[in-house]
Records
---
Amino acid sequence: MEALIYGYVRDDLADGHSEELEVAMSTLARAEGLCFAATFHESTSGDGTAFAELTAELRRADAHHVVVPSLDHFAGQTIPRDILIAKLAQDAAARVWTVDNAELSHEVAATGTD
């Protein structure tokens, strides 16, 4: 059985491209052998509700993977990005994947340059 991975997107950063971002996150999941379960959308107000729901779902499902379009989706909250990432690691032993880093890794592999 494939491990589950959940997406997290801040709607204010999605700029109307939520569907494309979800496709990119799902594609990354499949490429890494993970099962893309769902995306949690943080509202424009960024009150952290979706982040709290994501953390609870990770614990409930015993899942340990989160994918975001970029780490910027953890920024701009009342709690700094590094603390949110550490909270995912502590509360759910979760690894964070980013679409932008995956694309960069594939480009480096294809070109052989850094």
---
Amino acid sequence: MAGDDRRDRGEGGLLLLSGLIALVFTRLGTRAGSATGVAGYTAAGLGPRAGQAAAWCFLAGVVTGAPVVCLIGGAYVAELLGAGGRAAYVAALCLLVLVLAVRLGGVRTGTGLQLVLVAVLVTLVVVAVAGAAPGARAAHWTPFAPDGRAGVARAASPLMLAFVGWEAVAPLTARLRDPRRQLPRVVGTAFAVTALLYLGLAVATVAVLGPRAGGPVPLAGLLRVAIGGYGPVLAAAAVALTLAATHAYLTGATALATALAGGAGTRRGTAGVLAAVAATSALLLGAAWAGLVTTAQLVAVPTALFLLVYLGCLAAAVRLLTGAVRLAAGAACAVVALLLAGSGWAALVAAGVAVVAGTRGRPDPSARVRSRAPESRHKPEAGRSEPVDPGTASDVCGQSVTGP
């Protein structure tokens, strides 16, 4: 994602926050497991209206965030073709149409394909970081924080979009056969891989690119330093990862929409979510093309929506959990509240969505969830285990690694 060096220098703190959130979501997933994910977690601790608000904030975040993720992939396509900035918007629209067609057709990203995509990402980052390392310059780290703490604070909120993802896979974790055993392992692996990738890439971006770190395609810049002119070509592989991330978000959104509808009208719910994504994306990308909105403004809205979702889940966790995880939830809740406050006008938009969703109509009873630990989905009385979706684990890992 595009950004300047002060954003890269704030990634360590956001990684720590992401780790705390991952820990809390893992415990919520095993204690208050729910097919409605964030809606169920929030409802369990704060009530059904809060759960309804969290659900709609998440869905709104996916609808407004999908064009942003595709725009990132579009920037790499434009770099590959050596085209102007307008080409990125056309490429983003093409990517969006492709991923919507795949999701509408009911094709799921299977475990094998998701692991291949993650492997491609790891390979790209390792090649870029290791190959460009000889070009690192200590002078690029001076001054360490050119705009001071205020600059880091301003950059932290929009950069948070690069670290979200736990909320997207929350509805999918209920499909695990043995959440108490499988969920911590999957989430732990996803976070470890994510942390290594982001830290390595952030350090290399600042140390090697220096003033050029603020470009829209920093990975392509590192690959160009590492292996020459073929860098942008290899960076185009990020397009596939963009598709995987967007698809994972859409999968989570449609799963949530279906669960909130009580499992009825699955195809209709999926089509509704995808139609909303298509219409909103066309509007936002068109506005960006015309220069009516900036990329920073596009990023701000879904970031604030996801932060509000996190705030609800973490506040619920403070009430539901105990011990060290409860303390972690409280600390993360305070930081997320500060980040949300730093979102400015976007926070007001997110709050408006939450208020309208939470006060409109009667709360959906399907958002209620028992505060218990779904230790296993094995059914001894039936003598069998409920099958687990083979794509679930890869969606959890893949979304966390390939998120926007």
---
Amino acid sequence: MLSSIIVTAATLTASTAAHAAITTFTPTADTYVDNGSTGTNFGTSGQLGIDNSPVKRTFLKFTVSGVSGVSNAKLRLHTDDVSGAESPNGGTFRAMSNVSWTETAVTWANQPAVDGATLGSLGAVVRNAWYEVDVTSLVTGNGTYSIAITSGSTDGADYDSRESGSTAPQLVVTDGTTPPPGDPVWVGAGDIADSGSGDTATAALLDGIQGTVWTTGDNVYPDGTASQFSTYYEPTWGRHKARTKPSPGNHDYHTSGATGYYNYFGAQAGPSGRGYYSYDLGNWHIVSLNSNISMAAGSAQEQWLRQDLAASTKPCTAAYWHHPLFTSGANHAPSTATRPLFQALYDANADLVVFGHNHQYERFAPQNPSGGLDTARGIRSFVAGMGGAGAYGFGTIKPNSEARNTGTRGVLKFTLHDNSFDWQFVPEAGKTYTDSGTTDCH
């Protein structure tokens, strides 16, 4: 796994504004040294090696700024996607007192001392995968930190360096500030991660928004494979995985049985392989549904939904899934197969439904299951497919469509009050489109 590469904590550059709930830093420096090449500098290498024969050590340096305290810090590394990057030993991680070393000058002959406390270790690692080590004991606030990685194995590991781009090392710092009091925040989008940069932009928005994260499917493109979750989703929205309540999309099901999706999210995706589940937030009951399996009246999912709603004691109800019953998008027509789910929610006096699938944003007035305006019992619905994938255009604008935008990625933030909800479209950096409002529960 890891050879004797020393990793010095690289200086990080914050991806979000100061005092964000979660800030991700990338190294200001990273390199490795090799006792088989004592005078060679590997600072510009795309790879960070650790080994015990020859002895290789990796050094990382991060500069943390703009945080008001640290409640948790994780070092995240990605193994190189090459043969031999895997190892039975992912390495031992230690603090270093030297933070003045430079990436382009360090060699085996002049390497800084690995003289600090052990922060953690990794067991076996495979190629092309993300791993993380808790370094909270070292990263206690703003400052520069060095971390070394060594290995006792003669079958060492290879990680991607900061020169690798999206798979560069990350230091993910959770701010220690006590969350402000208030009603639950529920935020997310669908149609998220691919080889482009859109998911990076929307993940940066989540860094600054506390609360529960939801997804309306097509979490990763193009096929929902384990590798695509590791390569595209994990380095962006993946840093918010612990607070995410997902739903699956059709691209997640390009992998048979959506096994990439279910294996990645585990218990957070509900009972294994089923794809629908529910939970409560404050005064709200929330249901995540699966529009990739049968939704017909009398189906297992539809019957479960009716029973789940009947058992809820919460005064407000929301639901979300991938295929939209209402949409003006040009690429995907309304999915009438989802109407039995909407009908069950309408019969239970639900208040809010969110879809994805069309890569755009659209807000509808409260409607009944047939799409008629219903200001008394209607459910307000949103299409929130602007999580990162390429934008889609609009076709004929459907009745009761009140707001829409394409070409601006973002997240949709709900604040769930005791008997109402606020919505806010939060645009990616550099864009100005927004939409906001309030609706009472029934």
---
Amino acid sequence: MKFVTALTAAALLMASAGLASAGSWVFNLENKSEAHVTSFRTQEDGNWSQNWLPENVAPGETFDMDFGSDEGECAVRTRIDFSDGTFIDADIDYCESSVITVRNQDVVWR
């Protein structure tokens, strides 16, 4: 019985993961800076979202992100905060991004 339940749960998880990535902005956040990334926020209607990150991203680490949607404008104002008190504020094109790399002074995407 437990095996069937685990198998069913695994199948549902794989199916929902496929659906989420099929219609959402999915990308890797690379931290190539010297500080931890402490928050990643997007702006809509002049207001900043809550932090998209459940944990800090250490220098050299990559974090998989999924907005869960691909609706709206491709270029979204984004603020990325660092543990040293600095931040980056930029318009990022999420429609064309699979990797977003934050560095000490800027952010680039490809």
